[in-house]
Amino acid sequence: MAEYDEGMMEESMEKMQELALLPLRNTVLFPQVVVPLAVGRPKSVKLIEEAVQDEKPIAVLTQRDPETDEPETGDLYQIGTVARILKVVKIANDNYSVIIQGQRRIRLDEMVQEEPYFIGNFEVLDPGEEAEGEAQVEIEALFMNLKSTAKQVVKFIPEMPKEAAQMVEGVNDPGQLCDFVAANMDVATEEKQEILETVGLKERLTMVVTLLARQLEVLRVSDKIQSQIKEEIDKNQREYYLRQQLKAIKEQLGELDGEGGDLEDIAQSIDDSELPDEVEEVCRKQLNRLRMMQPASSEYGVTRNYVETLLDVPWRKQTQDKLDIKEARKILDEDHYDLDKVKKRIVEYLAVRKLKNDMKGPILCLVGPPGVGKTSLGRSVARALGREFVRISLGGIHDESEIRGHRRTYVGALPGRIVQGLRKAQTNNPVFMLDEVDKIGRDFRGDPSAALLEVLDPEQNKTFSDHYLEIPVDLSNVLFVATANMLDPISAPLRDRMDVIEIPGYTAQDKMHIARQFLIPKALESHGITEENLQFDEEALDKVIRNYTREAGVRNLERRVADIARGVAVKVAESFEKADTEEEMEVVEVELDKELVSKYLGPELYEYEVA
């Protein structure tokens, strides 16, 4: 293709009115800037072929919407650039790679033709008179600022060629540098078009310097973020490399601990467990300390046990309550005779829990004589609610640390029984049975009943403090059931925190029902005999109750029934030994009456008289 003569181009431009128009997507062409284009639309292909053949300049306008495939006059910006075609390469059928260079700014006056491609009348925009005096000084200052900022931007862009800074330094025309920088800035097409439409040099320089300064600030912040990320990645890689080296050294020295040496299992457990933020922070801090210790040191074992204990506590694990009131009543009736007051209280709790999901667990205290079923009632409550059951006996406890735990500075320190119970249950809402709360002792080691004040206070136990953990434990979801034989030994503040339910002793009639429903079937099963082998008549059972037991509960009655069951079991076992075959074996059937009771239980222990 023939070369254009610069003088002829300038002269022809003054007279030029009609130009073929090439619409561009996402590209704004500036004067003196060379741009490569991919041309594939039928109209554009036709225009390029004829413009190359006639060696004519073309007009270039940018589309307002790059998604428009067939733009009309209204879809184009009115101000663009007249350009000359430097090179055309045919890539495929109806596809060209074209390199064009912008010359001067132009404005579309009217569209002359739309087919086979756009042709319009254009007016060349006058750059204006040369500035003088104070305006010229401002332009020079802006020009220097633009050069300085552009060179800084080049440093922050690694893919920018090294010669770019030299090119910026070598341009002495403010307008040319302004257009060159604007064409290469990473800004929106609309902002570039606004720069193109700004003919005045001072205003254009001000606009470009402002946008370039904004881009420089973005690049600085981005570079800072990238540096921080790289530094963090390098730090993690360095730590991993050093840990692997430390592991290899410990293997050589035989100092690996029994768990595998690198504590990665604990680290994985911390990642997998849904720990509260405070607990996770403490675990990670202690794990970092472990990495710096020798496994053979005593402190290593203490710290490791502490971290493992923290991970074992069910901070957020819960069992789903069974809120079926009818089913709960059925379970409680199956397990215990009478005790209507306790059953009513549990059903009330279930009903409120069903209506208000965030209700705190009640603190119940069952007071009654031995053998009335206080402890076993706790298991039935847990079964009715669908919760785990934990029982701890407080009888004879003298040390406050049994409740609150030992401080980790002591050798063999452990959490208190409350935290240990939670670890055993593996849920934070079990039914917690505190047995024999009236038999707690007190000496120079502290008062355990005073420590229980926080455990059994619904307003305080949300942040129960265990000396070993040193992190508050939430006990508000736990249903505490305490048992006692008498109220008097329990301190007044502790008694005030519990909902006391008194369970009276059983009458002879009650014991009769309990024996029929619970004690006799249990004794038969425990001793390997059946109802066919042993049957109690009413008078015999009444004699056992009245003449061989004298208690409020049924514990001794259970023992007497077991004594009779063992005597019958001996007869059944002897019949097995006598029979040669199963068919010859004699079935032992004992109909227990008043006379046989004395045979199995001996002389009567108590006399019973009817007034």
Strand arrangement within the widest β-sheet reads: 1-3-4-5-6
Largest sheet: 5 strands, mixed, barrel
Percent helix among the residues?
A: 40-55%
Shape summary: elongated
Number of helices, where a helix is a run of at least 4 consecutive DSSP H or I residues? 21
Low-confidence stretches: 1-13
CATH architecture assignment name of the largest domain: 3-Layer(aba) Sandwich
- What would you report as the Rg, rounded to the nearest angstrom? 47 Å
Fold and architecture overview:
This protein has 611 residues and is an alpha/beta fold. It folds into five domains: 6-124, Archaeosine Trna-guanine Transglycosylase, Chain: A, domain 4 (Roll); 136-222, Methane Monooxygenase Hydroxylase, Chain G, domain 1, CATH 1.20.58.1480; 255-312; 325-502, Rossmann fold (3-Layer(aba) Sandwich); 508-601, Helicase, Ruva Protein, domain 3, CATH 1.10.8. The chain is 48% helix and 15% strand. It contains 21 helices and 13 strands. The protein has helices spanning 6-15, 42-54, 133-156, 163-170, 174-184, 189-197, 201-253, 264-272, 277-292, 298-312, 325-335, 340-355, 374-385, 401-404, 417-425, 448-455, 492-496, 508-526, 538-547, 555-578, 594-601, and strands at 18-24, 34-39, 58-62, 79-92, 95-113, 118-124, 363-367, 389-393, 431-435, 479-484, 499-502, 534-536, 590-592. The strands form three sheets. Strands 1-3-4-5-6 form a five-stranded mixed barrel. Strands 8-9-10-7-11 form a five-stranded parallel beta sheet, sandwiched between helices. The longest helix is centred in the middle third of the chain and has 53 residues, at 201-253. Mean pLDDT is 82; it is low at 1-13.
